[in-house]
Amino acid sequence: MKILSTLYKEFLLLARDPGGMALIFIMPLALVVVMALVQDAPFRDYQEIKLEVLFVDADADSLSAKIKQAFAASPNVSLVMEKDSIVAKKRVQAGDFKAAIIIPQNTSAALRNKTRQLITTVFADFGLPAQADSTPLPGVDLKILFDPAIKANYKQSLSGAVEKIIANVQTAWVLDELQSQLGEGKPAPPKRDFKLTEIVRVSTQYASENKFQGLMLNSVQHNVPAWTMFAMFFILYPLAGNFIKEREEGSMLRLRLISGSQFPVIAGKFSFYFLVCLTQFVMMIAVGIFVMPWLGLSKLALGGDALNIFITACAVAMAATGYGVLIGVYFKTAQQALSFGSVSVVILSAIGGVWVPVYVMPEILQSLSRFSPMSWGLESFNDLFLRQASIGVILPNVLKLVAFALVTLLASVVIHKSRTVV
User: Fold this and answer.
1) Which residue range or ranges hold the ABC-2 type transporter transmembrane domain (predicted)?
2) Within 199-303, where are the H helices?
3) CA-CA distances (angstroms) from residue 203 to 198, 200, 284?
């Protein structure tokens, strides 16, 4: 009965506190919407590389034609023709374009000569009829100029694409030269056009079930579970505030005079705010499913099994509530509790991957994130939403959250009992 009475009392306290209600329910909803909108562009920036690249074609031969043909089929790179390499450099340096590809004169001819010399040298080494020209040929000087402010992933993607095109062209020319030299002095057989890209085909897809193909981490998939946990842990504001207020007003003293254990008092508070956290979770998930698409963002995809999602939500709610109870019991004034509590929650969320995904953090913060309960919860939600993980995959993180909750609850009981002993 004492637990039920505490539940009812906490309900009345929260219902009579419009500021606390807004902090628990309204502010988190606004926060997750704003953060999803703000971070939508950066997430697309990481995942959808789209570049306008200057192209200076002084070669006007087969190599430059192959490069233009390849990028014409690319949805991520658009070539903008420019005649003067000096002008191109200035425009990239000014930040008008992120990169410029410069194909000097006679690049294709130089590459063919280098290829021919290579084949001839190899034939001569094996004693085959060929006359090797040992005169060193100048290297092929193709340039890619980058804006100094370009992101490293853009630079790597563009460089890799150009190098791949050149490698394909050179390989095709090697085969042509082999056919030409082996057929020298013989009736010319028809040359074969070998499509090397058909020998080994590389396809890319996400390792997801068929109905979830194409589902990836975006601003909605990251921000909804991340800021939901942030809101859950901020339950310490009304929880700790009410706890300390009761202690200051003498309510705790009157409860102390009642015979029996003080555990039901803490258990009642824990149970009520645990249910509040689950209510927050349901509301935030509903925003991700119904409100985000209305704002032009992606719809939150739950992906995993509903039962596993509920288990994870319960584990996070337990950890958040246990932490709030501990803050309320340990600190003697509301100012101490709320100051420490807010700063600690912000730190735990920052290193736990709430603000930005853990994989883009410095290595030292990635190591520290393993000790944040928000990291355990967020990783579990990612496993469920994006990877359709089973209970066995999320179980270690769920057990960490439950253990964290039990430890904080036990510590709260011990501290509370030690301060109420006559």
Assistant:
1) 23-413
2) 219-233, 236-249, 251-257, 263-286, 292-294
3) 12, 10, 36
Distance, CA of 99 to CA of 49 (rounded, Å) = 13
Measured CA to CA, the distance from residue 73 to residue 55 in angstroms comes to 15
Q: Tell me, what amino acid is at 98?
A: K
Sheet holding 143-146, edge to edge: 77-81, 51-57, 99-103, 143-146
For the ranges 107-111, 161-165, 184-188, 222-226, which has the lowest average pLDDT?
Answer: 184-188
Residue 47: both structure tokens together: 């995942």
β 99-103/143-146 pair status: antiparallel
d(CA 69, CA 48): 21
Q: How many domains does the chain have?
A: 2
Last residue of a domain, which of 146, 169, 204? Answer: 204
* pTM of the complete model: 0.66
Verify that 169 and 108 share a domain, yes or no: yes
Between the two ends of the chain, the Cα-to-Cα distance in Å is: 25
DSSP 24: I
CB 174 within 8 A of CB 119: yes
